[in-house]
TrEMBL record, chain A:
<keyword id="KW-0812">Transmembrane</keyword>
<keyword id="KW-1003">Cell membrane</keyword>
<comment type="similarity">
    <text>Belongs to the binding-protein-dependent transport system permease family.</text>
</comment>
<protein>
    <submittedName>
        <fullName>ABC transporter permease</fullName>
    </submittedName>
</protein>
<feature type="transmembrane region" description="Helical">
    <location>
        <begin position="182"/>
        <end position="201"/>
    </location>
</feature>
<keyword id="KW-0472">Membrane</keyword>
<feature type="domain" description="ABC transmembrane type-1">
    <location>
        <begin position="95"/>
        <end position="305"/>
    </location>
</feature>
<feature type="transmembrane region" description="Helical">
    <location>
        <begin position="131"/>
        <end position="162"/>
    </location>
</feature>
<dbReference type="Pfam" id="PF19300">
    <property type="entry name" value="BPD_transp_1_N"/>
</dbReference>
UniProtKB/TrEMBL annotation, chain B:
<keyword id="KW-0732">Signal</keyword>
<protein>
    <submittedName>
        <fullName>ABC transporter substrate-binding protein</fullName>
    </submittedName>
</protein>
<dbReference type="Pfam" id="PF00496">
    <property type="entry name" value="SBP_bac_5"/>
</dbReference>
<dbReference type="InterPro" id="IPR030678">
    <property type="entry name" value="Peptide/Ni-bd"/>
</dbReference>
<feature type="signal peptide">
    <location>
        <begin position="1"/>
        <end position="25"/>
    </location>
</feature>
<dbReference type="InterPro" id="IPR039424">
    <property type="entry name" value="SBP_5"/>
</dbReference>
<feature type="domain" description="Solute-binding protein family 5">
    <location>
        <begin position="84"/>
        <end position="411"/>
    </location>
</feature>
<dbReference type="InterPro" id="IPR023765">
    <property type="entry name" value="SBP_5_CS"/>
</dbReference>
<comment type="similarity">
    <text>Belongs to the bacterial solute-binding protein 5 family.</text>
</comment>
Amino acid sequence: MASYLVRRTAFLLLSFAAAMLLIFLLLRVLPGDPANALLSLDATDEQIAAARAQVGSDQPIGTQLLNWVGDVARLDLGTSFTSGTAVLPEIASRLGVTIPLTLISFVISVVLAAALGYYAAVRSHTRLGVAVAAVAQVGIAVPVFWIGILLVWVFALTLRLLPSGGFPREDWADPLDALRSLLLPICTIVIVMTASLVRYVRSAVLDVLDSDYLRNAQALGATPGEAFRRHGVRNASVPVISILGIELASTLLGAVVVESVFTLPGLGSMLTKAIETHDYPSIQGVLLVTTFLVLVIGFAADIVQRVVDPRLRSSLSGAHA
Amino acid sequence: MRLRLAPSLAGILAAGLLLTGCAGGGTGDATTSAPADTAASIEVGSLYEPSNLSNVDAGGQGVTEAFSGNVYESLMKLDDDGSVTPLLAEDYSVSDDGLTYTFTLRDGVKFHSGKELTADDVVSSFERVTADDSQAARKSSYAVVSDVEATDDSTVTFTLSQRSISFPYLMAYVWIVNPDLADAKTDADGTGPYSFDEWQRGSTLSLVRNDDYWGDPAKNGRVTFHYFTDASAESNALLTGEIDLITSIQSPDSLTQFENNEDFTISEGTSTTKELLAFNDRVAPFDDSRVRRAIYSALDREKLLDAIWDGRGTLIGSMVPPTDPWYEDLTSVNPYDPELSKQLLSEAGLADGFSFTLSTPNYDPHPEVAEFLQSELAKVGITVDIKVITADEWYTDVYQNLDFEATLQEHVNDRDVVWYANPDFYWGYDNADVQELVASAEQAETTDEQTEDLKKANEIIATEAASNWLYLYPQIVVASSDVTGFPVNGLNSQFYVYNIEKA
């Protein structure tokens, strides 16, 4: 296990380095000069040169890359070209919206999906069981912004129960107020995420229900429920956990749409604005932090999977140690 | 999402001279019957979040909207009708040769930090605009100033290298900023009726009433701008009462839910935003004014305006909107007349038509306008190839490299017809008479002379169809019906909030 961790960590760092290089190069391949962000329509050649020097786009790409890597190593994500403020604190403040939004949605979705997926599998021959599976199927097909708009229409515009968007000026000073603002966005993500997870849980549970060891357990006198709890849960959760990592990562990245629909000052809206204004330090910063989070999620999912599944654990510590 | 040139390039173009926000003029009358709450907090919805808080560092249209006249003030003020009156200047005088402007400052003006306003602050504010690294809009217009000096604590003298009748008007764009302010991009210290409170990036920017204000105090206690990236989210916020008004509606679709609803008022003011089909007048066949006129006459602009704005907005026949002092109605100079169009084409030797590439910015309304042009021009035998480009490509290819045949663009500033006197400008219109008239207008001794010259210049520009001016955008503010006193014209993207009252 220890050597697996070392190798997995090395892989994590390597992926991160590759991602950094890719982010950097992709931005440079795009047409347009970030200095444009600072220029007015009547800019003179001198002003253009001054702007290039200010944003560093007059330097060779290699130098720019080394500077950036050096800064990142010192945990300095630079200063926004346009706003003139440090990127890292702003990302931190945006994460104050994006992370709770993602995590709360994730936890609720996992609980709901586990219950619904289990029900849909165990009762796969009843009408309700089929209905759950069918609704989940529909839920996957519906675009997330459409669900958001629908929820706004019902709960904000029609029933006037919740705000249609925005986030309190005081951030989390009043947690209840902040949560109220996040309620509809969370519901939106939960609907989409649960729908997608239910399918995985259902098929994982169906696989397990169909297994010989479960039949054996029942033949030995366990009720179907007991047998599943004792022998099935762990087995069914292994394939689901690997999916959870991917789901969590894609929710984090997909929050940009939800943030736009609900006007939340999260990472997504920061990225959109930064791209609009060619603000390289902000774009790089946001991409870097999200990439890092996604890689860490993948890392964690792998570890958890191995902790849950003794076979993976032993094969890894045994065969490859 | 709609990316107007000014905001989307908020940064890229930083708004400059001709494309920064602007629209016709003024403050709506604040006539309320119900007693208004002077401590009320006004929640304003906008699509234009500033990039930073400085107007000389590419802060964009958003910072003008939130700060101009509200937090920062200038020596002169641009009024509702487009006229210019003294603001922080008590008065000013011009020497007989028109080369020396002397401004006397108002007494008892204090910055929000408590510091008293002096002539030195005015000088440094002006130098801030003209500094080497300044990206201020209209910066090049200030080149005419050869010297600026604080003659005493309350007098500032500007010496010009040549006459400039627009000089007082230009002073309306110079914010007076406390030079002690450490970073104007992230903080503010002005003399206006509000002081800057807080900016939650990506979300809100709030102002609080300045109780030490030298003039009439603001009629509300606090104003918060709420920024949206999505127009429907913005409309929803107004419908649910989270905001009180929307500064500028950008598509007629957003209006349907407020029409015939007594909870809301829709105000349509005059903007100065012109939708332009601009040609590269340097290259054939657009170097021939008959071809440009032929295209203009082939376009049923009324139909276009209906399609884009649902009947709102105004048809124009030149670059001059009704709020500019030299406006006259020239809509009939190049009438919609496909037969005339064909005749002009054959006179130009293009009876069999021709084809050209239309560089079309990829954001509303340009793609829709491009398709309209394509189908209209097909009727007179002209083939249009639509080339969709990003705002950034527009800036680089069209604006800087002049690598285009024709393009679509919205020009939002007031008083921008003078760009047709610059043959190096992107559309490359080159007419010596126009150049002479514009130059002499600027040298004029009276505004009447200036107006007369610019009218003449504009008539030539319109007759030659230097560009095709398709329509003038409406300036639409939608507000909750208990809210009054908001500006209806949003001149130059300004949005004076101090007269807004909530019953």
